[in-house]
Please model this.
Amino acid sequence: MKFKPKKFSLDHKKLDQNFYLQPTLKVARELLGKIIVRQFNGQILAGRIVETEAYIGESDPACHAYGGMTPRNKIMYLPGGYAYVYFTYGMHYCFNVVTEKEGFPAAVLIRAVEPIEGIELMKKFRNTNNIYNLTNGPAKFCQAFKIDKSLNGTSLLGDEIFIVDSDDDIKFTIGRSQRIGISAGTDKKWRFFIRGNPFVSKVKIKSK
DNA sequence: CTCTGGATTAGCT
DNA sequence: GCTAATCCAGAGC
Model:
């Protein structure tokens, strides 16, 4: 299958804060198909979101806010519409969209996107020419989109990084599973993905 | 194809 | 001190 970037226009409507204030599972589902845009140095990177995971509240054992606020997770307590970026495994970043009302810690992890714009730059950042290996994982997506801790706490209503609606007539069905790479909270099926999309990450359920 | 271990450090206990 | 919302290379089948 040959990859053809789909049409993309910056005229598409930027998602407003009301979208992010909604229940996290709804946001996680509805982010599928939407387009995440990153601007820096006058360059544009964009991709269609094809895989997400929800992390919800202090009682979700897989959520970073499990057990209460700490210096790392405090961004999750902001009202919906902020970026929560964290560093893990000594070398990787992961990007989340904060959801729900202020004081309730919840976020949606962007696990994979389908590259649309700025593909050559993504290949450079990822040091690979294989388009299917650019953004099919949460840390790969961050590397391809030049996302690091400096974006932690950034508003998604600004211009550095934001998400726009898709007005294409793209039809897809949504798949659902347990979350990937966690050892607690595996009973919850809070991962969502576009069924059949070749840019969804490889599934490896952590066995424990 | 599948499976295993190493990389490398911030954040918590 | 231990582990992590990951990724990659290498080994074996």
In short: The first strand of chain A starts at residue 35 and ends at 40. The CA atoms of residues 3 and 182 of chain A lie 31 Å apart. Residues 70-72, 86-91 of chain A lie near DNA strand B (CB under 10 Å from a C1'). Chain A has one domain: 17-194.
